[in-house]
Fold this sequence. Notes:
Number of strands: 15
Order of helices and strands: EHEHEHEHEHEHEHEEEEEEEHHE
Radius of gyration: 21 Å
Distance between the termini: 36 Å
Strand order of the largest sheet: 14-13-12-11-7-10-9-8-15
Number of domains: 2
Amino acid sequence: MIRYGIIGCxxxxxxxxxxxxxxxxxxxxxxxxxxxxxxxxQVQEKYNIKKGTTNYYDLLGDKxxxxxxxxxxxxxxxxxxxxxxxxxxxxxxxKPIATTLEDAKKxxxxxxxxxxxxxxxxxxRFINVEMKAKELIKQGYLGKIFKVRAIACWYEECEIESRKxxxxxxxxxxxxxxxxxxxxxxxxxxxxxxxxIRVYAEADRFVHRREDxxxxxxxxxxxxxxxxxxxxxxxxxxxYEGGFSRGETIEMWxxxxxxxxQPSTGLMExxxxxxxxxxxxxxxxxxxxxxxxxxxxRIHRKFIESIEKDLTPPVTGEDGYKALEMVxxxxxxxxxxxxxxxxxxxxx
Length: 348
């Protein structure tokens, strides 16, 4: 049994993590930490968690805890990760791994130096329709992929009183590119098994234009990969859903086929020159994989296995770094109005 401690009991923990964690075989949450003492007590009582504290060093010093989950605001990930690594705790850090490449490097190096496992919370790799897309690609239904289009666009009100830092770029916030576009940069690497070598992006504020908002509300990035594939990434938090895209889609074109799917709904269509339809070989195959909402369970099962069997974690620190690098390159390109080559030089 691998025993977890939670650092940060806010929205991510309550809305996305806690129920899957309680349902994951081989895992037990034994401690929680939050600066809000009332919140700690509520979480302990609601989920029958034995230990609670407002000081995360209490969890790091607890010999009963094997893994800590870092759920703090993204610009605050680095120090708790460094402290956890030094304490010998394995780490699951929510995405993004950090907000700068320098901090991401520090986290990765600390985990390597202290021989602890690091997993980054890109759980969307483990959505069932994403895994099906990966399977179809590996089986050769698309052939050599030359173009991808990833869309993650919807509307949200920017009235986040408790998380004002999200709206301020200098305080470590980020618009839709950093908040959910980074899931898509990870997905692109996951599906293509390629590395980005060049990024050109345009970003701006078109709708959310209050003076206290300094993060983008729209960004379009063109990403070139090392085997030639061109990817287009579109993100927005000021775009009302409608039309064909319905907020979130991925489209892929290869020299043998085409794939279109929606990760959140499970809808998928694909065409391939391989024999896929015995009735009409020129038609698209239509599938629907009902979302089972088990992506968190899958990633934590694999993380537990990596700890128990000394294997590579399901989403490594390097994976988190590469996803962040494409985001950083996009921001840099949009600011300088020129293409940015990768990898980006970073001081060790």
